[in-house]
Amino acid sequence: MSPHLRLALLLLPLLAAALCRGAPPAGELRCRCPRTVAEVIPPRRLARLELIAEGPHCAVPEVIATTKSGQTVCLSPAAPWVKLILARISSTHNQL
Q: Half-sphere exposure (CA, 13 Å, Cβ side) for 73?
């Protein structure tokens, strides 16, 4: 067996494992949030907020919230409560 084929066979399970975990291939250009919610999630339930600016991967900005229970939710950036939280984060960040 050639060394190149042997290397390919060794790397194949690693690639399959990465794909099964849902890791997108490098350079994939698509939105991460096909649907968003506008319902209020109490800030005390939020563990993390991620803001992804619009760009070549997606035409709209995306706001992804992770709750303390580990649930991931795509929030509507147009929702008034989301705008308020983002404004507070932005003003805090600008003060640093």
A: 21
φ, ψ of residue 26 to 5 degrees: the values are -60, 135
What CATH number should be reported for the domain whose range is 28-95? 2.40.50.40
The average confidence (pLDDT) of the chain is: 78
pLDDT for 12: 46
Its pTM stands at 0.64
Q: How far apart are CA 51 and CA 70, in angstroms?
A: 17
Long-range Cβ pairs for the range 58-65 (8 Å, 24+): 58/29, 58/30, 58/31, 58/32, 58/33, 59/31, 60/31, 62/31, 62/32, 62/33, 63/33, 63/36, 64/32, 64/33, 65/41
Q: What is the dihedral of CA 15, 74, 69, 39, to 10 degrees?
A: -160
